[in-house]
Specification:
Blueprint: E1 8-9, E2 14-18, H1 24-38, H2 51-66, E3 71-77, E4 80-91, E5 96-103, H3 112-126, E6 132-138, H4 142-150, E7 154-165, E8 168-178, H5 179-185
Parallel strand pairs: 5-6
Antiparallel strand pairs: 1-2, 2-3, 3-4, 4-5, 6-8, 7-8
Helix pairs in contact: 1-2
């Protein structure tokens, strides 16, 4: 019997592995190591203090997957856990998915998240029947905004004072892309 988790190769370097309990130690260690960097743009790292916190998060995401409300993956780059990418939520009735992602500093700038999001978007179209993709990004997080732009997404609106981070309250820039816009881009991976 193979104990390796199911995985989805995006390309020769990036693999998405469905979030599962066995990945909790690696994900927790990554959070611990890069916490000071992650809290600049994410609220959750300040709430993760022990392995059990990561295990609870994974259990919640597995539950939401069973309810067909969310789908999260660990991002592996060259076999090493590097971050998380997935649908924070999706709605079958609205045919809309909301992507979220984070990548630890050593793997940023490699295009790994962009390629992972492209793969997820095609799965959202083909498997989930989504018609629209949205991503919310903190207004000062230019690197994350560039991911949205590389995906061909357009800025849709700004929600002021949307989230409190370590740096204070931040606005969220909402990016959006429809199925028809995606298909017109005809972008190869």
């Amino acid at each position: 019997m193979n104990d390796e988790p199911l995985s989805y190769p995006v390309d020769d370097h990036v693999t998405l592995v469905p979030l599962q309990r066995e990945l909790a130690p690696a994900l927790f260690n990554l959070t611990e190591r890069y916490r000071d960097d992650l809290v600049r743009w994410l609220s959750w790292p300040g709430k993760v203090h022990q392995l059990a916190d990561t295990e609870r998060y994974i259990a919640r995401m597995v539950f939401l997957l069973a309810q067909r409300q969310a789908m999260q993956f660990v991002v592996e780059v060259d076999g090493v856990v590097a971050g998380v990418c997935g649908f924070n939520k999706w709605s079958q009735p609205l045919a809309r998915g909301e992507l979220g992602y984070w990548l630890a500093p050593p793997w940023r700038g490699s295009g790994s998240i962009t390629r992972g999001c492209r793969w997820l978007w095609t799965q959202g179209l083909d498997v989930l029947g989504l018609q629209e993709l949205q991503i919310a990004v903190a207004s000062g997080n230019h690197a994350s905004q560039c991911v949205c732009q590389r995906l061909g997404m357009q800025q849709y609106k700004v929600i002021e004072q949307a989230e409190e981070l370590a740096v204070g309250m931040v606005d969220h820039v909402i990016y959006r892309l429809s199925r028809s816009q995606w298909e017109s881009l005809c972008r190869p991976f």
